[in-house]
Design a protein that fits this description.
Length: 426
């Protein structure tokens, strides 16, 4: 079946899904394969649950006219999304980077939705499956799509750009993330810059942090760029006024008091302001949108309990974001501070060195107490208290109740350190 024919069928459905648990009436189910599953086996179940069509790539599972065979389900999903994006033709803003992608995406969406009908990536559905599903969730009424793109290997952003064909783009930063897949920091820069390469090759507009030396160098010969910084030399001047603990920024005639902590969130907010102003959202509405946004899903959340003020930043971690979080925690004026840090994943051969660097940084900043948890942090040389596993940490916390009033919890998603809240608040 051609992509155009598949798209004709898709327009009669209520959307695309790849998980039978998310099937609603008249959806189109794509039977994707994984290392431990074969989606083809669930085609009949999808139809029984209400899917209008099921797309398979193994003929033996075609048991009715509503089960459609293609050569490759994943490729068909991606090509359908690419076709659909051109069919509905919204303005697409793509963003990638090592840190802050999801928060930045949500801030941009909050601002632009004040003026436009927007669709943004849900959660962190930012990979070779998530990006197509995001595009297929848009329709003719969508004016702007904000598409988050994640990657841990070279050529992934390039492929996602080919599917989404963005009109605008932004890279949050280049940090020490996914070093194992990218082969080092230079690989990270090259991989994330595939977004710039795509846009520059088509002379599309790039938004950039005019205080980031890497971005300045990458774009020095490119004219279609919109920069922001704290100086009047850039297109948009946005000034940090305070970050203790919440970030406050000044732009033109407004002061914006956000609900985000950490100076590292300054650029995330600033680019949302920049895009809002560029796309002619009023300053009043920009201010309203950003001040109404509250972080969730374990991202820089402040949780006030009876005994503690907890900064929960346990959604993810890499050396760059870890350093930024520690520096920010150190700058807060509150006294009696406890760090609880979990392992950083996907660092490959750099894992030992990077964990030791963070352990020494924590020690040098001289917090009241530091607790490290995970196999990599356990191997470090430090005076901090160390535990190999979460269960060991849990057992300690239940017996030795922290006396510090301020606690920063940060680690990679796989550590799931938010579980410690139950024991801190018990």
């Amino acid at each position: 079946m051609t992509t155009e024919s598949l798209h004709t069928l898709f327009l009669t459905t209520t959307g695309a899904v790849t998980d039978t648990r998310k099937i609603e009436k008249d959806t189109m189910f794509f039977a994707l394969r994984g290392e431990n599953f074969n989606g083809n086996e669930f085609a009949e179940e999808a139809i029984e649950k209400g899917a209008k069509f099921a797309i398979v790539d193994d003929r033996k599972y075609k048991t009715s006219d509503r089960i459609i065979t293609v050569n490759n389900c994943l490729l068909s999903l991606q090509e359908l999304a690419k076709f659909h994006r051109k069919y509905i033709n919204p303005t697409i803003i793509a963003l990638t980077g090592s840190n802050g992608k999801t928060t930045t995406k949500e801030l941009i969406n909050a601002v632009l939705s004040k003026k436009y009908r927007t669709v943004a990536t849900k959660g962190n559905l930012n990979n070779h499956i998530g990006v197509p599903l995001t595009l297929l969730s848009m329709d003719k009424t969508t004016e702007m799509g904000i598409v988050e793109m994640g990657a841990n290997h070279l050529k992934e952003i390039q492929r996602l750009c080919d599917i989404a064909t963005p009109n605008y783009g932004y890279i949050t930063n280049f940090g020490k993330a996914h070093l194992e897949g990218f082969g080092g920091v230079e690989g990270v820069i090259k991989g994330k810059s595939e977004l710039y390469d795509f846009l520059i090759g088509r002379y599309k507009t790039v938004f950039f942090n005019a205080e980031d030396e890497i971005q300045i160098e990458k774009l020095k010969h490119y004219d279609a760029k919109i920069g922001f910084s704290q100086t009047p030399k850039s297109d948009y001047q946005i000034t940090l006024k305070n970050a203790d603990p919440f970030v406050t920024l000044a732009f033109e005639d407004i002061t914006i008091n956000s609900n985000l902590i950490g100076t590292y969130n300054t650029t995330n907010i600033a680019v949302a302001i920049t895009m809002g102003s560029y796309f002619e959202v009023s300053n009043k509405e920009i201010k309203e949108a950003i001040e109404a946004y509250k972080p969730s899903n374990n991202r820089s959340q402040i949780i006030n309990s009876k005994n503690y003020k907890i900064i929960l930043d346990a959604y993810n971690a890499n050396p760059s974001s870890m350093k930024a979080a520690l520096d920010n925690f150190n700058q807060l004026k509150d006294t009696t501070k406890l760090l609880i840090l979990g392992d950083m994943f996907e660092l490959g051969s750099e894992a030992e060195k990077e964990h030791q660097t963070i352990a020494m940084l924590a020690e040098n900043l001289d917090f009241d107490a530091t607790i490290l948890v995970g196999e990599n942090f356990y191997k470090t040389t430090t005076n901090a208290l160390k535990f190999k596993s979460f269960d060991e940490l849990k057992d300690y916390i239940t017996k030795e109740i922290p006396t510090q009033k301020n606690i920063l919890i940060k680690g990679s998603r796989g550590m799931a350190l938010e579980r410690i809240l139950e024991y801190l608040n018990s």
